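Issue 218. Parser rejects a valid record. Input:
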Amino acid sequence: MQLLAFCWIDGAHLKVTAARNHRAAGVLPRLLAAATVVWLAAARAIAAEPQLPPLPKSVASPQDNPITAAKVELGKQLFFDKRLSGDNTLSCASCHQPERAFADGLARSPGAGGKQLARNTPTVLNAALFKKLFWDGRASSLEEQALQPIQSPDEMNQDLDELERELAAVPGYRKQFQEVFGTGVTRQGIAQALAAFQRTLLSGPSPVDRYLAGDQSALSPQARRGLELFMGDAGCIRCHHGPLLSDGKFYRVGPTFDDRGLATITGKQDDVYKFRTPSLRNVAETGPYMHDGSLATLTDVVTYYYRGIPFTAPGGHALDVAPLLERSFDEIPDLVTFLKALSGEVPKIEPPTLP
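Output the parser choked on:
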C-alpha cells in the first residue's frame, strides 16, 4: 500500500494527514516531519498574506501643505467652481459628484466641449491614500494631480495664467488666498487647497470592517461566503488588499486594448495596456467599472474575471491574470454581495456658496 503524507490549507485551518498501514511504521515519523516542514511554511505564508485593515480616520498632510480649516474650505469652493474650466461649464464636482460617492455614474464623462473622455472617471473618495494617482499613475500626490485635469485640453481646458487672473478678479478669492497662503491667487495655492479638501474625503467603516473587527452580525451568510472566496479560492486579495483594497500596482487585465495605459507615461513596451488596481471601497456606488467603463455592473465585473479574461493581448503580451475557469458561476452572487458590503458612509458635502 502506498504511503502518503501531505498538508493543505482549508480556509484558515491547516491540516496534516498521513495514510498508514502496518508496513509504514518505520517511515511514518519521517513523513510526518516532512509534512510539518510544509505545514510551517504554509503557516508563514498565511501570516504574510495581505489582509484587509480599516481605513485611517484621517490622512497626514505633507510638510509643505499643512491642513487648516480655512484651506479646506477654500479647496471645497474651488472644487465646485466652474470657473476652473476654460468655458466656465465644468467643475471638479461635475465628474466627482458627492451624491455618487465622488464619481459620476457614467462609463466615460463628457469633457471640454461635451466630447466624451477616453477613460472612466475614478472616485476621489479615499484617493489621498494612493501613492500613484490616475489610471496610469502619472501623479504622485494630490497636489500634482489637482492641476492636470484643469489644464487638460480634453477635460477642463483651462489656461493656468488665465485662471489666476480670473480668480484674482474675485474679491472673495483674493481675500481667502491672502489669509490662507499670504499671497495672491496662484496655481500652487489652487493645487494645495484642492489637495487639502480631498484629504478630508474618507469613507466610514463598512459592514466588512465591522465584521472583521468582531461584529459577527455585520455580514450576511452570503457576504461571508463571498469574503472567503475573495481571500481564498477566487484570489482577489492578491491585488485588492490593504486599507484601500488596492495594492496600487499596475496590471494588464483587459477588457479592451485601445489604450496604452501605463506605457503612455513610462514609454516601456512591457507597460502597454497596464492600469492601476482600483480601490474597492464603496465600489457598489462607483460603477461603471474598468479603465474604460466597459463593464456596467459588479456582476459583469466578477463574471469577467471568472470567464471573460483573454489569454493574450495584442502584440503577444501576456495578461497578468487568468480566468477562473475551474470555478463555478454559482460563486458570483456571493462575491457580488461581499463587494456591496464594502461601502462605508460617504462624507456629506453640500455645494458651498462661491465668492
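Fixed in the parser; the record now loads. The domain at 69-198 is CATH 1.10.760.10 (Cytochrome Bc1 Complex; Chain D, domain 2).
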